[in-house]
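Problem: given the chain below (192 residues), write out its structure.
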Amino acid sequence: MGAAGATELILIRHAPALHGGRLCGRTDVAADLSGAGRLRSSALAAGEPVRLVVSPALRCRQTAGALWPGVAATPDPRLWEQDFGAWEGLALARLPDLGPLSRAELAAHRPPGGESFADLCARAGPALTAIAADGSATVVAHAGIVRAALALAIGTAAAALAFDVAPLSVTRLTRLGDGPWAITGVNWTPGP
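Solution.
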């Protein structure tokens, strides 16, 4: 729980996606919910949600339902993962090597017919700000959305790409009034 008068966003990346070795940003795939112990640990670390907001993706809705059965979740279409365009559904081994790009170049790189990470931040940043304007919330979404929240706090999309965001990890941001965001925890991952 955040300090008195603070707004807290608790962001949880969905459980591992059953993607079959293929890239699935906007591709709607199920979550692997077999790790009951990890699910319980994530739920305990996040606490009971004041408000629960989820990406409409099946893997996010399933994860939220497994973490907090019976708690109503509000889907927000602005919280979809990055649209990888023509790369959607490609085998991970067939994706182009973007390793030579700097973080700034990577943040600006747009897959054919898709959106860049900077585009995702431009879409998700205002959504996360609007969610926070209504008070503290728990958000179950994607790695890209968690990084977009971190970009809000640090002020740059490129630097946010440096963060690892593991499945079922918990990231916390706190804001006092309309002030800057404080990062109070990143990528906390439950044990086995």
